[in-house]
Design brief:
Elements lengths: L11 H20 L2 E3 L1 E5 L3 E7 L5 E4 L2 E9 L2 E6 L2 E6 L5 E3 L2 E8 L3 E8 L4
Antiparallel strand pairs: 1-4, 2-3, 3-10, 4-5, 5-6, 6-7, 8-9, 9-10
């Protein structure tokens, strides 16, 4: 006689636990970003920050603060993780505090940067 084990469907308790775990992860990701004069679009290890020009714009992302200091032409100055960086359109990523920072776009109304965790850190 062979004993067979029948796979039982997920119990309601397991379903609720899984749902709550997923919701907690989503809230943790969203709670990691805040901004003033800026908009953020974050994933698990990278964020795009769109700063409004002409205002005191900053955002807290991935556990660090990013601020727009100034912009002139296609060059901007930002502060990320307490260090000022000069970024130019088309430039390779600048590394600071375990993050790679790139300038995505500059217009008269906004500046968009991308901040991502360095995979080697």
């Amino acid at each position: 006689m062979t004993n067979r084990r029948v796979a039982s469907p997920l119990t309601p308790t397991r379903r609720v636990a899984g749902l709550l775990a997923g919701l907690a992860l989503g809230v943790a990701v969203l709670a990691g970003c805040s901004s003033e004069g800026a908009r953020t679009d974050c994933g698990l290890d990278a964020c795009t920050v769109t700063f409004d020009r002409g205002v005191d714009a900053s955002a807290t992302i991935l556990g660090v603060e990013a601020k727009l200091i100034g912009a002139q032409g296609d060059q901007v100055t930002v502060e990320v993780a307490g260090e000022q960086l000069s970024l130019t359109m088309g430039q390779q990523a600048t590394e600071v505090g375990g993050f790679a920072v790139t300038l995505d776009s500059v217009t008269d109304q906004e500046v968009k940067i991308r901040v991502s965790r360095n995979p080697g850190n």
